[in-house]
UniProtKB/TrEMBL annotation:
InterPro entries xrefs: NAD(P)-bd_dom_sf, RCK_C, RCK_C_sf, RCK_N, Trk_Ktr_HKT_K-transport
GO molecular function: monoatomic cation transmembrane transporter activity
Species of origin: Paenibacillus elgii
Name of the protein: Potassium uptake system protein
A Pfam family it matches: TrkA_N
């Protein structure tokens, strides 16, 4: 199977971290930045690097970006450059365009020009950290919809050796434990007899309210 190829445009803090992680995951990454120093810093890390201004149509064409599976625009402060680059990439026919937005308005414009996925790293990280600060046992979560969430909850010492039957989250709180991540492996769809131990991670699905009550009363 052909390995996916990614182009990352803008090798600032976000772009370089994303690009390095894609390499770690085994994909090919072309990094582009107009700043020579930023490119130099990544030259040993990525499959290819190029010093170029991505707002130049010839650059996008000559680098053959349209043959890539996905291009990520991670240009920060320069909103105009971010939007121009995103338009050129959409026009190029590249498989998928992802772009980082610095504000809601920036994101709206990116969406209007057809960017396939707009990401708000700082806004989203702020929200995530706030949730973790108010719920110390909440390790991570995915919002399935406005109301439903999957949350990873750390099991405290007080629950050591308790079975799911004893905790009974479904009958008492309406949320379900869909997996227990243990040191030696993950139990998917655990049964009532499965027990939790300190430092296990429970993966719980339910409404935000159900999970919050479960967390406050049990964990
Ligand atoms: P971060 O917050 O992720 O660090 P920055 O704004 O610091 O974001 O980084 C954005 C990167 O995008 C910088 O390295 C900058 O040189 C690069 N960049 C900005 N405009 C262009 C452009 N037109 N073409 C290519 N790279 C660009």
């Amino acid at each position: 199977m052909k390995r996916s190829q990614y182009a990352v445009i803008g090798l600032g803090r976000f772009g370089s971290s994303l690009a390095k992680e894609l390499i770690k995951l085994g994909y090919e990454v072309l990094g582009i930045d107009k700043d020579e120093e930023a490119v130099e810093e990544m030259s040993d890390e990525l499959t290819h690097v190029v010093v170029a201004d991505a707002t130049d149509e010839d650059v996008i064409r000559s680098l053959g970006i349209r043959n890539f599976d996905c291009a990520v625009v991670s240009i920060g402060d320069d909103i105009q450059a971010s939007i121009l680059t995103a338009i050129l990439l959409k026009d190029s026919g590249v498989g998928m365009v992802v772009a980082k937005a610095l504000s809601e308005l920036h994101g709206k414009v990116l969406q209007k020009i057809g960017v396939d996925r707009v990401i708000y790293p700082e806004r989203d990280m702020g929200i995530r950290v706030a949730h973790q600060l108010v719920s110390p046992n909440l390790l991570d979560y995915i919002e399935l919809s406005k109301d439903y969430t999957i949350a990873e909850l750390a099991v405290p010492r007080s629950l050591n050796g308790r079975s799911l039957k004893e905790l009974d989250p479904r009958a008492r709180y309406g949320c379900s434990v869909v997996a227990i991540n243990k040191k030696n492996g993950v139990i998917i769809a655990p049964t009532a007899e499965d027990m939790v131990e300190e430092r296990d991670v429970m993966v719980v699905i339910g409404t935000n309210e159900q999970i919050e009550t479960f967390e406050n009363e049990v964990i």
